[in-house]
Design brief:
Pathway: Cofactor biosynthesis; adenosylcobalamin biosynthesis. This is Precorrin-6A synthase (Deacetylating). By secondary structure, this protein is of the alpha/beta class. It has two domains: about 140 residues, 3-Layer(aba) Sandwich (Cobalt-precorrin-4 Transmethylase, domain 1); about 110 residues, 2-Layer Sandwich (Methyltransferase, Cobalt-precorrin-4 Transmethylase, Domain 2), CATH 3.30.950.10. The chain is built from seven helices and ten strands. The protein has a five-stranded parallel beta sheet, sandwiched between helices. It has a five-stranded mixed beta sheet with strand order 6-7-10-8-9, sandwiched between helices.
Length: about 250
């Protein structure tokens, strides 16, 4: 039997990791680090920093592989399915080639494995197909939503108010009915611009928890252009951007 630990490591700060997750790190014989390319090298650098802080040197080995890219195309769901199929093949090869029977492998997942991440679904499918004797455990982490609200010193919900987590693509249809707070993730097109004039506040953050953190907030109509400019500058400077934001109806 092989074991795989799926460990949430928080949204960017090396101290976001929980005590439970830190203990789980100590059980791992081999860590899989999926490299997203030169521009995103800081992501694996942070992963290695976490390992140095919370594990015993020499007690584990690291295998770093290039993560497959999502193919281009207008059908987003289909392209994600292709990406996850490619990721699954990578995981299966790593489990076959790098993990001996009785050993424990670990995957460090940004934020929490249950929120907008495919790792858990992929591993669940691998374990369910019966080809490999694989057990897996999941350790929660600080989500990007928690990091964002903490950075802005706000609550996630208003009193007795409903919250919805969505994507920039879905935001194009407008604020959902019956919801006064929306958290938006995976928005590459500045979807909040479609909601100007709707009496909303926005709390935006990029690279939250890291040394590159950028925060902006205020009435959406007043700060939207500033956020667009900040996103463009951040992407130009770093080659990539990892951001999210919260929209709330003004009272």
């Amino acid at each position: 039997m092989k074991t795989l630990l799926i460990i949430g490591i928080g949204a960017g700060h090396p101290e976001h990791i929980t005590v439970q997750a830190a203990r789980a790190l100590g059980r791992v014989d081999v860590f899989f680090l999926l490299d997203k390319g030169e521009h995103k090298g800081k992501l694996n650098a942070l992963r290695r920093d976490i390992l140095e802080r919370h594990t015993t040197p020499g007690a584990y080995r690291v295998v770093e592989v290039l993560q497959p890219e999502r193919p281009a195309g207008s059908d987003y769901r289909a392209s994600v399915d292709v990406l996850n199929t490619r990721k699954r093949a990578v995981f299966e090869q790593l489990l076959d080639d790098e993990v001996a029977d009785g050993e424990c492998a670990g995957v460090l997942v940004w934020g929490d494995p249950s929120l907008y991440d495919s790792t858990l679904r992929i591993v669940e499918a691998i374990a369910a197909d019966g080809v490999r004797a694989l057990d897996y455990e999941v350790f929660p982490g600080v989500t990007s939503v928690q990091a964002l609200t903490a950075a802005h010193r706000i609550t996630l919900n208003s009193i007795a108010g409903a919250v919805q987590i969505t994507t920039g693509r879905r935001l194009a249809a407008g604020m959902p009915d019956g919801v006064d707070t929306v958290v938006v993730m995976l928005d590459a097109q500045d979807g909040f611009l479609a909601l100007l004039g709707e009496n909303l506040d926005i709390y935006w953050g990029a690279y939250v928890g890291t040394v590159d953190e950028v925060l902006l907030s205020g009435r959406l109509d007043d700060v939207a252009k500033m956020i667009v400019q900040a996103r463009q500058e951040a992407r130009r400077r770093h080659g990539w951007i990892m951001d999210s934001y919260l929209l709330r109806r003004r009272t």
